[in-house]
Amino acid sequence: MTVELFFQTVVNATYAASYMALIAVGFVLIFGVMGVVNFAHGELYMAGAYTVVALYAGVGLPFFVAVAAGLVFVGLLGLLMELALFRPLRDNPLGGLIASIGFLLILQTIAVLGFGVRMKNVPPSTQEKLVLMDGAVLTYQRLYVILAAVILLTALWFFLRKSKFGWALRACAQDREAAVLQGMSINQTARLAMFIGAALAGVAGALTAPLVSPTPFMGHSVIVTAFIIIIVGGLGSLEGAVLVAILYAFVHTFVTTLYDGTLANIVGLLLMLGVLIVKPTGLFGAKERA
User: Fold this and answer.
1) Per the domain annotation, does 136 fall within a domain?
2) What pTM does this model have?
3) Where are the transmembrane segments (predicted)?
4) What are phi and psi of 2, to 5 degrees?
């Protein structure tokens, strides 16, 4: 591997880690607060991408206006899921999981009917790029993803630790029954978790739309990657999701560059299997309370 290729791979891995972290943190937040595995999370990512297809590539709105619309729209989809699916099935996690699969299929069908099954080419918002050390190139489009991930995840960290609503989210994630006894509203907390978790997936899809050529089935690979990240990091750990997203992105990108993508996927699955054998709760997960 040449020095130029090494630094270019580092740049590519940093970009991949950024959008993976946004998706995985949203997934973990929903699971931690609501106790349900949202199989439609990948389709929320897809919905964010298609919002940009419709508003930016279709209508001609400015790119960042379309991205903001994608964030809000997918966050509202999350609220709809909480109200219509997860709240009625709050005491039935398996039922919630199955309902999320149904919602997944609904979103895919809407995307197929509205946009067709072929990939949509979204023009980049800018052609500018940065030339880094030893000739490595970072396009502004990828830089936007990296900066957005840093800003949003940092803001979420402060929100969870410094605000009243953030404390409520953490309390419900740690012990829902105790949170109820303290007078916290489970419905309000669940709505907040679903909006934030869905919005993070939506903004990841919106920002990466010019880079990935959206399709109605683009959520499949994303949800598999998110599962690997949260299982290795620990189902209830937001910090673990971020750190493992970085680790996974670098491993996957370097293996893909040196060998091929299929081998990189196998390495990721082997990493997950190894962690499950050695530490079933994940690298940063806590043991389940008795």
Assistant:
1) yes
2) 0.91
3) 16-37, 67-85, 97-119, 139-160, 192-211, 265-286
4) -75, 165
CA distance 15 to 146: 6
**Roughly what angle, to the nearest 10 degrees, separates helices 186-212 and 140-162?**
170
Domain-embedded: residue 282 = no
Positions in the chain whose pLDDT score sits under 50: 289-290
Q: How far apart are the first and last CA of the chain?
A: 50
Q: How far apart are CA 97 and CA 103, in angstroms?
A: 10
Write out the residue range of the structural domain in which residue 44 sits. Answer: 11-217
Predicted confidence at residue 290, as pLDDT, reads: 40
**Do the domain assignments include residue 180?**
yes
Tokens 């012990």 identify what position?
Answer: 175
- State the amino acid at position 113 in one-letter form: L
What is the total count of domains within the chain?
A: 1
pLDDT in tens, 61-115: 999 999 999 999 999 999 999 999 888 888 787 888 899 999 999 999 999 999 9
**What's 183's DSSP letter?**
T
**8 in helix, strand or coil?**
helix
Residue 5 phi, psi (nearest 5):
-65, -35
- Is residue 66 a part of any domain in this protein? yes
